[in-house]
C-alpha cells in the first residue's frame, strides 16, 4: 500500500476534481461510455433509437397520406404508428428506469469513495503520525495543533495533513479555474470582435443574385 | 356499374352475418357505430334472424334515445317484453341514467329515498366521481336480471360510439380502483374502526363495512361480466357504418379500441348503400354512388378478415315487423342490385 500521505492527497485531489467538474457531468460521461460498450444495455438503447427512427418515418408517411383518398393505407399506417408509439413509450419508461438506477449506483460509489474515505481514514489512523516535525523548531502550541487530535505530540496528524491538502488543492484549483476562465473570456471577446467585423451575409447574397440576374 | 360492387372475391370472407347465426356459443352480441348509421335497424334485423335459429333472443337498447319502440311500433320498457308476432324474441329498453337513480333510491331506503342519505349518498358521490360508472352499474344490474331470465342470446343496441367504448373499458378501471380500496380498508380497517366506534359509522351516518361490502359485490359482478365479454366464444361486436369518411374513421378507431379491450369483432355492416337503376339520370345518386364506391373499396381492402355485409339504402323507412323481416333477409343473403 502506498504511503498514507499519498493516499490522503489522492483522495483530496479526487474530491476536488469531482467538485470542479460536477457530479452530473461525470455521471453523464460515464453513462455515455457505458452505452458505447458492447453490453446488453447499450444494444437496447440502440434498438430504441432505431425504433424511434422507424416511428418518425412512419409518421412522415402518415402525414403524407390522405386519409380520405387512401383510407386503407392510412388506417394501416395509423395502426403501425399507434403500436410503435405505445411500444416506444413503454420502453422509454424502462430505459429511463435503468438510467436512474445507473445514476444511483454511481452516486453511491462516488460518495463512498470520497466522503466515506475522507471520514474513515482520519478516524482509523488518528493515532498514527504522518511524519515528525524537526525537534524543537516549533513552539508547543504549534506542535499541539499539528498533532491534533490524537497523534503523538511532535508529529503531524492525519487530520491536519488532510486539512493542509484540502487548502492547497483548493487554492490551486481556484487559480487554475481563474486562469482558464480568463483565457476563455479573452478568446470569446476576440471572436465577437471578428464577428462584428464580418459583413452581413444576406446583404452580400442579395447583391450577388442581382449581379447574376444582370 | 352497379354489379361491380358485389364482388366478393375468393380471398374475402362471406359477406353475410351467417357466421354469427352459426356460432351457437354466442351469448352477447353488441351492435355499435356512429349515430345515425342504422344501428337499431341492424340490431333489430339481426335479432329477427337470430330468433329463427335460437330458442330465445332478447334485444336490449342502451341508447338513451330509444328507437326500438319506433322500429317495432310497440312500446317497450325496463322489463323484457315479447315483440308482437314473435314467440321467442323479446325486447327491453334501459336508460343508463334512469337505472342509476333507481339503484341509488333502493340503497338509501333507510333515510328515505328523497335526501339520498346513507350509502346511497356515498354511492351517488361515487357515481358522479368516476366517469362511466353510472353506465357500468346499470349494466351490471341489467346483466344480473338478464342472467336470471335465461335467454340464449342477448343483443345490445348500444349508444353511439363514445358511450359504448367508455362502458366497455370501464370494468378494468373500476376493478383496479376497487381492488386498491379493498386492500386499503382491510389494512386500515381496524384503525378506522377505532376512530369510528364499534359500528363503523361514518360521520354522515354511513356504514363503512356495509359500503365496502356493496363495492365488493359490484366489483365481483363487473369482473365476471368483463371476463365474459372478453371471451370470443361468448361475445362479439358488430360494427355498423356507412361508406363515408367520418363513419369509417370512427369504425377503425372502434375496432382498434375493441382490440385493446380484448373484445372480439369480425363483422362490419355497411349500411345505406346506393344502387341507382341503370340509366338513372339522378345526378346526386350517381355522385354519391361514386364516393361510396371509393370508401367501399377501401373497406374491402382494409378489413379483409372481416365479414363485410353490404346493405342497400331503401326508398322507404325500415319500420314495422314485415319491413324489418324483409330487410333482415339481406343480412344472410347478399343483396343483388336490380339490373
UniProtKB/TrEMBL annotation, chain A:
Classification via Pfam families: CHD5
Residues exposed to the Lumenal side: 1-4
Annotated signal peptide: 1-20
Bilayer-spanning residue ranges: 130-148, 160-185
Alphabetic keyword roster: Coiled coil, Endoplasmic reticulum, Membrane, Signal, Transmembrane, Transmembrane helix, Transport
Subcellular location: Endoplasmic reticulum membrane
Recorded GO MF terms: protein-membrane adaptor activity
Coiled coil regions, renumbered to chain: 78-105
Cytoplasmic side, ranges: 173-214
BP terms from Gene Ontology: tail-anchored membrane protein insertion into ER membrane
Region span, Disordered: 192-214
Keyword Membrane annotated: yes
GO cellular component: endoplasmic reticulum membrane; GET complex
Membrane-topology descriptor: Multi-pass membrane protein
Protein family membership: Belongs to the WRB/GET1 family.
Name this protein carries in UniProt: CHD5-like protein-domain-containing protein
Automatic annotation (TrEMBL), chain B:
Active-site annotation: 63
Compartments where found: Cytoplasm; Endoplasmic reticulum
Family: Belongs to the arsA ATPase family.
Subunit-level organization: Homodimer.
Transmembrane stretches, start-end: none
CDD domains: ArsA
Location, primary (coarse class): cytoplasm
GO molecular function, one term: ATP hydrolysis activity
SUPFAM superfamilies, sorted: P-loop containing nucleoside triphosphate hydrolases
PANTHER family tied to this protein: ARSENICAL PUMP-DRIVING ATPASE ARSENITE-TRANSLOCATING ATPASE, ATPASE GET3
Protein name: Arsenical pump-driving ATPase
Annotated ArsA/GET3 Anion-transporting ATPase-like domain residues: 27-332
Xref: InterPro entries: ArsA/GET3_ATPase-like, ATPase_ArsA/GET3, ATPase_ArsA/GET3_euk, P-loop_NTPase
Alphabetized UniProt keyword annotations: ATP-binding, Cytoplasm, Endoplasmic reticulum, Hydrolase, Metal-binding, Nucleotide-binding, Transport, Zinc
GO biological process: tail-anchored membrane protein insertion into ER membrane
Residues bound to ATP: 34-41, 244, 271
GO cellular component terms attached to this protein's record: GET complex
Keyword Endoplasmic reticulum: yes
Gene3D superfamilies for this protein: P-loop containing nucleotide triphosphate hydrolases
Residues given in the record as Zn(2+) binding sites: 282, 285
Cited function: ATPase required for the post-translational delivery of tail-anchored (TA) proteins to the endoplasmic reticulum. Recognizes and selectively binds the transmembrane domain of TA proteins in the cytosol. This complex then targets to the endoplasmic reticulum by membrane-bound receptors, where the tail-anchored protein is released for insertion. This process is regulated by ATP binding and hydrolysis. ATP binding drives the homodimer towards the closed dimer state, facilitating recognition of newly synthesized TA membrane proteins. ATP hydrolysis is required for insertion.
The organism's place on the tree of life at top rank: Eukaryota
Keyword Zinc: yes
One Pfam match: ArsA_ATPase
